[in-house]
């Protein structure tokens, strides 16, 4: 049986819930393929009193058929299929009464709950009734609901204004693996890859366990990428559309946002994005952006001017699979063995440089650890100049309570990075513009985040601190 990689915090919270002296209502959510169902199955070893899974893109009839099938699987007879979810959950309550009365822990797992909300079936209200009027009264019940459609879970469960309002006892978002967790996963699958190669795999697949599971340890990374994206089988070519179809009922407008952000290396403000999309900068756009952030597909970077400004935040695409797909796959035709033929080309190298910056932004905690500032209160943000032309931008700034501000420059290379005068001067100009425009009185430290370190030299000695690739693999 496969072991659980990472997820230490999540398992600790599940353990506490199982051992608590009250009824527990757990809500897990996160993007498709991130490992939600696997975590629950492996933790509970399939020892459920009842488990059912909603049918993705299924009809209302499909959902009720799945419910009836699950009832039979767990030995609960039914005279007929339910015609609505209220009736279904009343049937489930009656079926579980004897087991609950015995005093043993009763774990109920409803997977892909959002898929069950078809044609206005109002499944959330039925779950609320089930919990409020019966399950919550028994301290040996653990009810777990799970869904990939994160925006549905947030709106209808976490932030519910109806029967589920403030009922969740454990809210558990499941995020992609970090680089360290991806390394542990690949080690467990007998991969003998350097951290540089694991980094490149992360650039393509992100920290999505299912995507990593498709890799073959007997092939190189280049061979794996060609097989999964550029062969006749091209198993991953169809995943992009499936991802958005699973997450959103009307995926096209979300895809438009992601495509727009994939073309902007530095990201876009909400106003800029509205201009690119030729749409109104209104609540509908704001809700879609919020939905994408919840699903770990885009990142909202707060910015600093004279003060921290959240309203003018910069949005960036941070889902590495989507960034790779939209850069190399979303074309009319792509040649077979494309990756083998184009690795180390300027186009691929430019993509790697951009993606490494995004990976660093996703590993701020690891960078803080490598800089030995874990214990210091910090605020991380981006900055974009309003006076320089073209507008200077610094994606990673770490403002510290000890009155130092780390102004970070990210450089990807496969050997020690040689810092030349021209690049050093640009870094100084950005630093000076930042201090002047923000009026921040902290001491600025130039910080370089590289892969293989900085080559010795005159300008390397002028960098106050640095982090290498190993720092990003910190726990």
Layout of helices and strands:
Layout: H1 8-18, E1 24-29, H2 36-44, E2 50-53, H3 60-73, H4 85-101, E3 106-111, H5 123-133, E4 141-147, H6 150-158, E5 170-173, H7 179-188, H8 195-205, H9 209-213, H10 221-230, H11 239-247, H12 252-262, E6 268-269, H13 270-277, H14 283-294, E7 298-304, E8 308-317, H15 320-329, H16 338-342, H17 346-361, H18 364-370, E9 378-384, E10 393-400, E11 404-410, H19 421-438, E12 443-449, E13 465-467, H20 469-472
Parallel strand pairs: 1-4, 1-5, 2-3, 3-4, 11-12, 12-13
Antiparallel strand pairs: 6-8, 7-8, 9-10, 10-11
The N- and C-terminal alpha carbons lie at a distance of 25 Å
- Rounded average pLDDT: 93
Name the structural class.
alpha/beta
Instruction: Specify the number of helices.
Output: 20
Radius of gyration, CA atoms, in whole angstroms: 25 Å
Q: Characterize the biggest β-sheet.
A: 5 strands, parallel
Helical content (DSSP H or I, runs of 4+): 40-55%
Kindly state the number of beta strands.
13
How do the strands of the widest beta sheet line up side by side? 2-3-4-1-5
Spatial shape: globular
Beta fraction of the residues? 15-25%
Low-pLDDT residue intervals, each spanning 5 or more residues: none
């Amino acid at each position: 049986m496969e072991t659980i990689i990472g997820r230490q915090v999540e398992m600790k919270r599940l353990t506490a819930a199982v051992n608590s002296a009250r009824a527990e209502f757990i809500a897990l959510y996160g993007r498709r393929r991130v490992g939600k169902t696997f975590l629950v199955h492996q933790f509970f070893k399939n020892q459920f009193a009842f488990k059912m899974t909603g049918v993705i893109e299924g009809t209302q009839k499909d959902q009720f058929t799945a419910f009836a099938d699950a009832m039979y699987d767990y030995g609960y007879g039914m005279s007929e299929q339910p015609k609505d979810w209220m009736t279904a959950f009343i049937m489930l309550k009656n079926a579980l009464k004897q087991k609950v009365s015995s005093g043993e822990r009763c774990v109920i797992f409803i997977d892909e709950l959002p898929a069950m909300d078809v044609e206005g079936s109002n499944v959330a209200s039925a779950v609320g009734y089930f919990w409020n009027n019966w399950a919550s009264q028994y301290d040996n019940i653990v009810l777990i609901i799970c869904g990939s459609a994160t925006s549905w879970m947030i709106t209808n469960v976490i932030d519910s204004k109806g029967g589920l309002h403030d009922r969740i006892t454990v809210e558990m978002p499941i995020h992609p693996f970090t680089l360290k967790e991806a390394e542990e996963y690949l080690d467990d699958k007998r991969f003998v890859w350097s951290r540089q190669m694991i980094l490149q795999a992360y650039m393509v697949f992100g920290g999505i366990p299912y995507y990593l599971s498709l890799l073959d340890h007997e092939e190189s990374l280049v061979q794996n990428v060609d097989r999964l994206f550029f062969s006749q089988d091209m198993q991953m070519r169809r995943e992009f559309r499936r991802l958005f179809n699973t997450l959103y009922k009307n995926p096209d407008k979300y895809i438009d946002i992601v495509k727009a952000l994939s073309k902007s290396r530095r990201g876009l403000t909400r106003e800029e994005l509205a201009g690119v999309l030729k749409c109104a900068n209104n609540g509908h756009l704001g809700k879609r952006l919020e939905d994408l952030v919840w699903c770990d597909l885009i990142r909202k970077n707060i910015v600093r001017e004279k003060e921290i400004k959240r309203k003018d935040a910069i949005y960036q695409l941070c889902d590495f699979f989507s960034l790779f797909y939209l850069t190399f796959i979303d074309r009319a035709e792509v040649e077979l063995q494309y990756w083998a033929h184009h690795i180390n080309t300027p186009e691929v190298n430019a993509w790697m440089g951009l993606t490494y910056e995004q990976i660093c932004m996703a590993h701020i905690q690891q960078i803080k650890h490598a800089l030995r500032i874990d214990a210091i209160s910090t605020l991380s943000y981006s900055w974009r100049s309003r006076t320089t032309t073209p507008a200077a931008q610094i994606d990673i700034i770490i403002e510290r309570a000890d009155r130092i501000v780390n102004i970070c420059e990210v450089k990807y290379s496969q050997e020690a990075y040689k810092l030349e005068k021209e690049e050093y001067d640009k870094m100084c100009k950005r630093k000076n513009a930042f201090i002047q425009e923000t009026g921040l009185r902290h001491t600025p430290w130039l910080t370089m985040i590289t892969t293989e370190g900085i080559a010795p030299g005159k300008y390397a000695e002028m960098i106050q601190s640095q982090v290498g690739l190993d720092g990003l693999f910190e726990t």
